[in-house]
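Q: Here's a chain of 442 amino acids. Please give me its 3D structure as tokens.
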Amino acid sequence: MDLLIQGGTVLTMNPKREIFDNGFLVIHNGRIAEVGRGTIPPDPNREVIHAEDQIILPGWINGHNHLIQALYRGLGDTLPLPMWIGKIFDALASLTREKAYVGASLALIELIHSGVTTTADSHFSHVYKDSIEGVLEAIQSIGIRGVIARGSMDRSVPEIYQEKSEESLKELVALSQKWNSERIRMSPEALGVLRCSEKMIKELSSFSREMKTPFFMHIASSKAEAETIQQRKGCGVFEYLDRLGVLNERCVAAHCIWLAPKEPALLKDKGVKVVYNPVSNMFLGSGVAPIPILVKEGVRVALGLDGAASNNSQNFFETMKFASLLQRITHLDTSVLPPEEILEMATIRGAEVLGIGKEAGSLEKGKWADLIFLDSKSPRLNPKKKIVSNIVYSACPSDITKVMVGGRVIYDGKSIVTVDETEIIERVNFLENETNKILGGF
């Protein structure tokens, strides 16, 4: 049956940024057929959701994550970045498909509880070749959308994590044929300039152009990375990648903290997309990305949570608030990244960064019916004078009453309806004990 959502306040995030009081949405085959203001007459062929006292808006788009790292929450909390990375690699050596499924499921549960309906993921551990399929299975069973990057490395990491680009592309083609759907899309990722050869970076980028997928990388994510490229190549990290011919509109760059002076303009000129991970960057002491400068240049920017081993939360509301406040304290300027801009990054800009802007990120006719319902009676969402400010700076996951993906309810305000949360958590803690034994304790 078609679905009518009647009443409530609808934040469309459409080009006019219209907000409809007493709004409605008609959903047909998982997509929005109509959206507007007013009361729609009853129709026996439509199920009705009465949404009075609700705020309805597009589901959040999480532009960067490592879902399996939910297994390693708290691992190396106070370690410097190189030692933290070492701990992660130690843990990933035993990442089986089952562990990947359970870890990804835990992360997805928390993401959905905070309103995420589409997440990117970077999966770069292939010691067990099918571990990535555990992530894909979790996404499929829970019902969220995923843009999944199969990350690759061919140098400067333990040998068990290295592979040739030919092998990487072969695996990616097979995964795409098996798993690509309306809700799951596979993409290549060259993990970073210090862990991938020029050959690998070029070949994975070329594949993304041929297959019309995003091309993901971690870029300029640490001071050491920027300094190393400056010493070796005499330029910034993005300037180096431009020499390789891989900067284009399909390039999605996570972090982007340590930029050379001319690089913001370069990103705009090449159409590079950026994912801003404020909480992870603070957690790891990596620095502050120059997001206001990038936004001023006209670069498309999404928000990312990053993995639960470097956050440690998977709370998207927290990331929205920090995304703004971190820049305020850095620039000593309360006008940078206002809530309206943050909400755009969380929705329509995030969808554009992941290459799904024509299908997600706003409530418009023809787009997927991926929706969040917020309780407008929540004390955190009142008074109602500044609804966007309330959502970005005040709201929290407990204010969510419903999450829908493709017109299907996957979260009812209490728990995920597609999987048994208690079972997942029990399996996580059993596996955590195993990991503890392997690593000699966190």
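Q: Can you summarize the key feature?
A: Residues 205 and 215 are 6 Å apart (CA to CA).
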